[in-house]
């Protein structure tokens, strides 16, 4: 988070463009359903907006879902959105759809997984609650799990456990990592 905080607006804009170019180089099957996240701007999370626009152009009719987090159960659902969907900011500063139909995990072809850092094996550090790892256990085995990072991988995240789900790819402005 400290490294992200030091990124300038100009660097972020350049890196976002480079990330989009790398996503365009990623071999992907036709996509019908994508699960993304709403970036937290104050944390300088990578926005998926331009990437999703590109994917919608390449995959007409593709549906997009965003997470809704239930703090009481510490569980997450994916909710389908469209241009009419209203969002609200939850108690953690994350934009969530206010309404919509819940997407079943097995419907999803591609999931953009937020992260703070990742390692050379495809494991990631998130925000520490294991919400995404629990959700990702429910998606199809052939669904693509993709992380986006402004920074290159660390060699090893030492505190992974059997509940952690590795990514298939992580994309940085410099390259595409396949796991």
UniProtKB/TrEMBL annotation:
<keyword id="KW-0547">Nucleotide-binding</keyword>
<dbReference type="GO" id="GO:0030272">
    <property type="term" value="F:5-formyltetrahydrofolate cyclo-ligase activity"/>
</dbReference>
<keyword id="KW-0460">Magnesium</keyword>
<protein>
    <recommendedName>
        <fullName>5-formyltetrahydrofolate cyclo-ligase</fullName>
        <ecNumber>6.3.3.2</ecNumber>
    </recommendedName>
</protein>
<keyword id="KW-0436">Ligase</keyword>
<keyword id="KW-0479">Metal-binding</keyword>
<dbReference type="Pfam" id="PF01812">
    <property type="entry name" value="5-FTHF_cyc-lig"/>
</dbReference>
<dbReference type="InterPro" id="IPR037171">
    <property type="entry name" value="NagB/RpiA_transferase-like"/>
</dbReference>
<comment type="similarity">
    <text>Belongs to the 5-formyltetrahydrofolate cyclo-ligase family.</text>
</comment>
<dbReference type="InterPro" id="IPR002698">
    <property type="entry name" value="FTHF_cligase"/>
</dbReference>
<keyword id="KW-0067">ATP-binding</keyword>
<dbReference type="InterPro" id="IPR024185">
    <property type="entry name" value="FTHF_cligase-like_sf"/>
</dbReference>
